[in-house]
Structure formats: structure tokens, C-alpha cells
Amino acid sequence: MYRKIMVPVDLAHLDVIEPALKTVADLARHYDAEVCYVGVTATTPGSVARTPEEYQQKLETFAQQRSQVHGQPVSTHLITDPDPIADLDDLLIEAIDAVGADLVVMPTHPPQHLDVLVPSHGGTVATHTDVSVFLVRPAKQ
Amino acid sequence: MEKHSRDEGAAAASQPSEGIPAPEGPANLIDTDYVIGQDNITISPLGINLDLHGKVFTFSSLVILFFVIITLALQDQVEPIFNAMFSFLTGNLAWFFLLAANIFVVLSIVLIFTPLAKVRIGGMHAKPDFSYLGWFSMLFAAGMGIGLMFYGVSEPITHFDTALGGVAAENGARTDWAPLGAALGDEEGAISLGMAATIFHWGLHPWGIYAVVALALALFSYNKGLPLTMRSIFYPILGERVWGWPGHVIDILAVFATLFGLATSLGLGATQATAGLGYLFGVPATNTTMVLLIMGITAVALVSVVLGVDKGVKRLSQLNMVMAFLLLAFVIAVGPTLMIITGFFENLLSYAVNLPALSNPFGREDANFTQGWTAFYWAWWIAWSPFVGMFIARVSRGRTVREFLIAVLLVPSVVSVLWMTSFGGTAIDQAINQGFEGVREAALELQLFEMLGQLPLTAITSFVAIVLVMVFFITSSDSGSLVIDSITAGGKVDAPKPQRVFWAIIEGAIAIALLLGGGLTALQTAVITTGLPFTLVLLAACYAIVKGLMSEPRA
Fold first, then answer.
1. Which residue intervals make up region (Disordered) (chain B) (predicted)?
2. pTM for the model
């Protein structure tokens, strides 16, 4: 049913996205789908990498590790942007078409009052794309 | 300072995989164990995620709070101290400011013609993040937009008047404010000298100051892999110590200068916009009007800062450029067109002829002019340079050093010459050829509107001018918030959005507090006082630029 699953990942907060990664592994095996891990980074040096190339390498390494876990083919897609925190939603929506994904799996936080001011990225992406979006909540404590 | 080539990394990254951008090409990273954000604290009060540099954020917030309270509570005691400090600095150290600014200009110009100018910011194959127009609009709007509105008419006419008045002396010391040797009773000479002096303050020197800070930051961030904060410039001098207290102090100073520079300018802009609204619509120039204006400006800046660099700051800056261009074109068209066009070249020539004398730091006769105008301006530009420089650096990735210097130094200087010639020239023409004394007699913040009042379509142009003042302020405020947020987040540009919102609100709040408390003048003086330590920072930046560029691969 799904051929290519897009997974936005934040390499700085891998612990937070763990539940989403597990879900992706199961879905990918079930549908025998390819998984595309998408990273978004600023062009300035950051906590994960000091250059976009270094970030790309880390993303690639990460994808290969995940491939060991679920055994499905993987690919990566790196987006660099001068102001990622502001442009994230638009960048991810564009990436869905760019990588040709038919399912997006992404981590998100539970609904909260603050969403009125700072809407969740997952919610915004889901309302602006034709493909299916699977939002994964953090694990219950 | 160990370096390793990035070639291997680039080769590894270019393995075929979907969507990988082309490798950015060789550049020399500085090898450091420092991880950006390692000193940051991440907390989530009330569900709001924060990611801040513990020491820089805490100390700069405390220092700011302390200063605002002191200047408001002990205004009468504090103001003389600031004033004394300021006269000491401009009086005794004017030569230092003048000399330093000359060094920055000379370095920037010389670099354009050396092979070092082939280095590309962000690595040999980096692609620019913004188009020429978007890039130029942003750096110009952040750099001096508001000043051109405020001083575009008033400075040329002031220098013209003082020059025309000739030299006055008492006890062997000059008491007049005329530049150089003045031009007693010689109208042509006074125009020429007045315009040269104005252009001197708005031309190569301010942009040379910005260029040095911006280039050093861009180089050490994009090519050397250090965080985008002021301290990174000091890496060639301090080494690993920049990650400790010496670095914290530099960053705290930068936050301080940026925030108070913005807040005082916000006060200045509110004064001019209120004056304009009073002139045009009869809105009373009360504190209430100004407070409402600052709140309005801050609200728009908030929206823009949340939308980010590309969708917020860039769009506003471009809107600004279009409006400023229309206003400029209008003044040229309906003002003394021929005089402006010939004046542009005459003023440029006069600037070139008078530049050596005006920029000479030693043995000057015109003490009032060099200390009260030039040294004041240089300290002011330098105090603004961390903010403007860091913002320019952030949007300049992918440009070569040559492109960068031409766009940051030469193009804005020429635009400034044209702007000053048009606005100042029109006002001078009104004064000497049409016998209109309105501009000369008006208060500083009203002179622009008095000049526009003598041209057709006054209602429309004045309105455009008021909007322009406000939008220029919004662009300064939002880019300033981005800069402060990045410094207080240890160089991270992807810290959570609420932090930007926090700084934008703080800027507005400080501006209101100081405007109502009357501490704006005292603080303006305090900001300029920070110009002195920053002059040293800039001199260090010159050394860092040369050293950093020498170790970069060139195309």
C-alpha cells in the first residue's frame, strides 16, 4: 500500500523520536517500503554538525543504522536553510513531493494550550499535504 | 590551531543518495572540541521549550535589568556620569576612533583587490541563500535605514549652515561647529563642504565598520565551523579560552550594545514618527502616542520575527527598499532635479577631495566637529556593529569575499551619497534659492516633513515617510531579536521560537520604560560608551580576518 515512507528526524533529539522510529520500522517491514530519513539543518554551525556536509554524513550513518534494524532500503534527504526553526513546516511539506513519499511518519507532542500560539509541526504538515500522515505521540511514562 | 581539510568529508558525503546537495567544497575548519550548545541549559517552564546559554543569558538579562532600573531610579545622578564619560571618550579619544575607522576602511578596500577576495563564504562551492536583491535589501535596511530618514535632511543643512558661518575662536580654540576650515560666506563652498562632511559620516566609514565585523563573523562561522557569536572572532587570539569567561564577557557586551542600541533607536524612531503624525494629522505628540506607536511597531516585529528571516525580515526589507526608492525617485523628480544629478557627482568629488582631511585623526583644528560629530558617529556605528554585522554575516553565506565587500562597502556608500544629495540638496535649495526657512528652524525630527511640505503631494509623501520610518524600525527590531537570541543561545540559530518573541518584547518594553522615564538620552550615551571596548573587538577582527582568509583555499 505504501512504497516510500518519509521520516523527518532531528539528530539532536534522538531520544524524543524513538517511538516514531519504532513505528516506522514496523510499518516499513509490513508494507515492504523504502524509508527516507529527512534532516533539516541551519547553514550555520550547530550542535549536531559544524557544516551541512558533516550533517549529511551523520544523517547517512543514522539511516544505515536504522536499515540494520528494520532491513528495508533507506535513503536520506538533507535540507539546509538559513532559518530552519521558522521555515520547518514549509520545508517538510516541500520535501514530501521532492522525495516522492506516500506516507509521512513523524513524532509530535500531545495537544497543549500553547498550540494556539505555536502550532505543532506534525499538525501543520498533516493539514497541508495529500499524502497520509501518521503522528506518533511520545511514549507514556 | 590545528586544521584538517574537509576534502575527505566532502568526498564521503557525495556518495549517491537521493537529495544530497552538491558538496560545498574545501574549506578549513578549525579543530576544536567545543560542541555548540554544550554550555546551554534546556528547560520547559509552562510547556515552553527553551534552549539558552546559561551564563550569557543570565548575566546579560541581569545587567540589562540593573541598567534600566538605575537609569530610571537615579536619573539625576546617573546622567552626569554618562555625560562625563561620553565627553571624555569623544574629547580625549576622538583620534582613536578616527584612526581605527580608517584602518577598517583601508583593510576592506585593500582586501577587494587581493587574491584573498576569491575566498567564498561557506566553502568554495557554497550557494548563496538569498538573491542579490533580497540580500542587499536586508543588509541596507538593517544597517542604516532609519538614520537616513532622521538625518537625511537635517545633517546636510546643519553642516551647510555652520560652514557658511565661518570660523569662530576664543582663547585660541575653535568654538564653531564647522567642518575643517569652514567656508565663510561662500555658498557654493559651504554646500560642497557640508555635503562632503555628511557623506563622510554615512559613506565608506560606517560600512567599513560593518563589513569588518560581518566578514569576520561569517568567516569564522561558515568556513571555520565556530558558533555564530561575537566570541568566535577571538579564536585566533584567545584559542580555546574563548569558550570560557573571556568569551562570555564579549558576548554579554554584544547583547548589551545590541539591545540598548535598538531600544534607544526605537525611541528615536517613535519620536520622529509621532512628529510626522502630528504634522500630518494633528495627532498630539504625547507620551501616549509614542507608547502606542512602540507597541504597534513591536507587535508587527513579533509577527515578522516568528515568520523568520526568509518570510519575515526579507519581505519587510524588500517592501522598505521599494518604498524608499519611490520616495527618493519622487524627491529627485519634483525637487531640483538638475541640481541633484549634477550635485551627485560634485558631492562625490568633494567627498573624495575632502576625505583625507576629514578622516585625519591627528592635529585637527575643528575640535567641535571631529569630537561632536565624527567621533560620536564612529562610536555609534561601532556600538551598532555587533548587531548589524552579525545579521549581515548570517545572510551572506555563499558570497565571495569580493562580492561581499563590494555589496557591503561600495554599493551602500553610493546609495547614501545619492540619498543625502537628494534630501539634503533639496532642503538647501529651498533655503538659499527659495528663501524658505522652515527646515532650518524646525526641530530635528520635523525637518524631513518640512522639506517634503514644500514639494507637491505633501500628504502622500509625508505619509509614506512615516510608514517608512516605522517599517525601518520593524526590520531593525526583528533582525535585532534574531541576533540577540542567537548570542544568548550560544550561537544556535535554531533555538525555540518563544525566545525570539521574548527579546522582541523586551526591546519594546525597554524603549517604553526609558522614553517615559526620560532615561533615553542617558542610555544613548551609555550605548556609545560601549563603542570604545568594541573598537578593540573590531581591531581584533581585522587581525582575525587576515589570518582566517590566509588559511582558506581560494578559487
1. 1-23
2. 0.86
